[in-house]
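Lecture notes, unit on binding sites. The following record was shown on slide 14. It pairs a sequence with iron/sulfur cluster.
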Amino acid sequence: MNWTDKLYDFNALQEPEWEPRGLVFDVQRFAIHDGGGIRTNVFMKGCPLDCLWCQNPESIRWRQDISFIELHCIQCRKCVEVCPVSAIETDGNEQRVTGIDRKKCILCGACFKSCYAGAINIIGRWLSVEDLVAMVRRDSDFYIASGGGVTFSGGEPTGQPKFLLAALQAMQGIGLHTAVETCLHIAWEQLEPLLSHVNLLLTDIKHMNSQQHSALTGVPNDLILDNFRKIAARNIPVRVRLPLISGLNDSTQNLQETADLVFSCKNVKGVDVLPYNRLGISKCRQLGSEYALADLAPPSREKVEEAARFFRDVVDDVTIGGA
Ligand code: SF4
Ligand code: SF4
């Protein structure tokens, strides 16, 4: 089995009884926007936040999900035949498959295995550290030549701390640069043991006002800012990422307060302004869930440039879109 097959490995659908294994929903090779150089990005399942604009809604739950892409369905009805709990939804005449009843679904994977059209997918595989090392070793020459490495993202990778710690140690053990993209909404006791194995943290600052942060993400920002300042005190390199969402966090006051925070923390190596995009809409549809900002347009180029200027005043390296 080669490494790409691992993400389609039926055996990896079952939660293992041994540690450490990580629930991973994607592994992207040759990424260039998440930590410098050429990298492999490992996307882990589960997130303590539920941001209205999330572009990876498949990452949020701490368990596997099932997706259905109607456009890919060839209406062979194999999934209807194999589902043990009648969770495949069909239209009134029971002719066309239209979706999946996730309240009934037990995530057995039978429909996924039977769907040759690729219309059904189980999101999330249990991978071992050895699986990941085998994946990244193939490209390690590119990482080393380009100053890249491996980035753990999600979801919230620190939510699977045993696996993340073992994976970080393994990557550093083979000489690779490590980055972790984290929302920082995690107990310090859980975060701290990971930090000595991380070369770079990528962290969002989504809103400086805690009430607003709660309304937009489901959690206040106190723990996040507390961790951010503790990390600054240890001088651990950080890139700040600002998802720019029109009308929600792009006020002058919020941009200025975020820039002030960046200025006060000398460990911040750069800022990436990430304009809102609409990627989450179709993904939510595939997961059978509602997308809260379906009518929101991405910010104008002028607005994005205006936001970036707040940060160019306080740090040298500011990108738009992480590029
Ligand atoms: S098995 Fe796949 S292609 Fe066939 S009806 Fe089900 S979802 Fe559609
Ligand atoms: S994963 Fe299993 S239970 Fe869920 S819809 Fe598919 S066949 Fe049915």
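Take-home: The first helix runs from residue 3 to 6.
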